[in-house]
Each structure stands twice: as structure tokens, then as C-alpha cells.
Specification:
This protein is of the alpha/beta class. It has 8 helices and 10 strands. It is 32% helix and 23% strand.
């Protein structure tokens, strides 16, 4: 379920065919009826909207959408090699707010897809979806325990693996790396596993003032790295 006017409007504009039904309170239904004649609209009471919406302050509209095929498999889309050559890997990022923010940021920077370990937060949990602000359908997502095998398959297709690592080389904004890449981010507590680090072609870190903070939030770090990558 996609909640909130801004997120629903994004889905209506970019992923209309994924919507099964709109749920609206009476005062918002009219505005959506004029632009959604091809989509069923169910009018519900504010009490019911408050009960089903994951938001503390519902905006009077939710969209029920179909979960894309193969999200919970290790099947890599064949088209992935043609979508800007950029894939994000999340390993054991458990906070749904961080996962949703990273998906939203990846979509904003033109990343083709996101691979997640099965210990990451569910990409279609209410809090994750809310944090994506409607971007959840803008790229392909795979959540699987076989993510290491997926990396191997992508490397065999010519992808290079960039690992975010506190012991890596300092990130330089002017660096350019040719060819398709996977950017790997780990949990804030443990970082990336030895398995992912061992498979990496490059290890990078973001330089920060040691006296200012020990580390960055994973979603913030991911945003900086994706911007530099772009």
C-alpha cells in the first residue's frame, strides 16, 4: 500500500499500471476521480483510513499496488546490463527507514536496481515504502539469501564491485571508473561482510573529520557515494 498524496501522485504518473485500486476519503475522492477514470476508487471513512494508513497523519488517499515479480528471488533481470550499468547492493541493512531512503536515493541517481540480502528490512514493509516516497517501483529490487551468487553472476557479466569500507581508499570526487559497477553498502554496526569485501574490486571510504563524528548514517553515506558515482 502506497500512502500519501505525493507518493500516490508519483505512482499515478510513472507506474499507473501497477495500481489495483485507490482508497480515498470522500473529500479527496473527487480530485482523483477526474484523473483516474481507468482505476477503481473505493471511498472509505476517515476512521477506516486512520486505521489502515501507516502514516500518523493520513492525507486521505492510498494506492494498493501489485508487488513486482521476482522481488524475493535471485533472478537478475536481463535488462540490468542496459540500465546505466549501476546496481546498489545492501547487505544486512535492517532499519526500514534507511532501506527506503537508499532505494529513493538510488532511483533519483539513475541506479538500475537494488540487490538486498535476506537480512535487510523488507522493501515492501509499510515503513520502507513510506521512506521511498513513491519511488519503490522506479527500479528493480531483489531480496535474497543468494546475493553473493548474484554478485558473482554480475561480475561474470563484466560488473566491478565497489565496497564502502572504513579501511578503503579515500573517495575522490573527480574519480571516474569505466564500465558497469555495483556499489555495496553494509550495516552501520558491522559494515560489509568478509565475503563481500573479498569479492570487491575497489574499496572506498568517505573522508570525515575524526573529531566531529565517528561515522555516517548508512543512508547518508550511500547518498554521498551515489552522487560521487553519478
Amino acid at each position: 500500500m502506497i500512502d500519501g498524496k505525493r507518493s500516490v501522485d508519483h505512482i499515478l504518473t510513472h507506474h499507473r499500471r501497477s495500481i489495483n485500486e485507490l482508497l480515498c476519503v470522500e473529500e479527496t475522492a473527487q480530485s482523483y476521480q477526474s484523473q483516474s477514470s481507468d482505476i477503481p476508487i473505493r471511498i472509505i471513512s476517515e476512521t477506516h483510513m486512520n486505521a489502515i494508513s501507516p502514516s500518523r497523519t493520513p492525507q486521505g488517499v492510498c494506492a494498493l499496488v501489485r508487488v513486482p515479480d521476482d522481488v524475493y528471488t535471485s533472478k537478475i533481470p536481463e535488462a540490468s546490463t542496459a540500465i546505466n550499468g549501476k546496481i546498489l547492493l545492501l547487505e544486512h541493512v535492517q532499519d526500514p527507514g534507511n532501506v527506503g531512503t537508499l532505494i529513493r536515493t538510488a532511483a533519483a541517481f539513475g541506479v538500475g536496481g537494488v540487490i538486498m540480502s535476506d537480512q535487510c528490512a523488507d522493501p515492501f514493509s509499510p515503513k520502507t515504502i513510506q521512506s521511498t516516497a513513491g519511488s519503490i517501483l522506479s527500479l528493480w529490487i531483489r531480496r535474497s539469501g543468494n546475493y553473493l551468487q548474484m554478485i558473482t553472476e554480475l561480475k561474470n557479466r563484466g560488473y566491478k564491485l565497489i565496497a564502502a569500507d572504513l579501511h578503503g581508499d579515500e573517495l575522490r570526487s573527480q574519480e571516474k571508473r569505466a564500465g558497469p559497477h555495483i556499489l555495496a553498502l553494509g550495516s552501520e554496526g558491522s559494515g560489509l561482510s568478509d565475503g563481500v569485501i573479498g569479492m570487491s574490486d575497489y574499496r572506498v571510504r568517505i573522508p570525515i573529520a575524526d573529531s566531529g563524528a565517528e561515522s555516517l548514517n548508512v543512508a547518508v553515506a550511500g547518498g554521498i557515494l551515489m552522487f560521487a558515482w553519478r
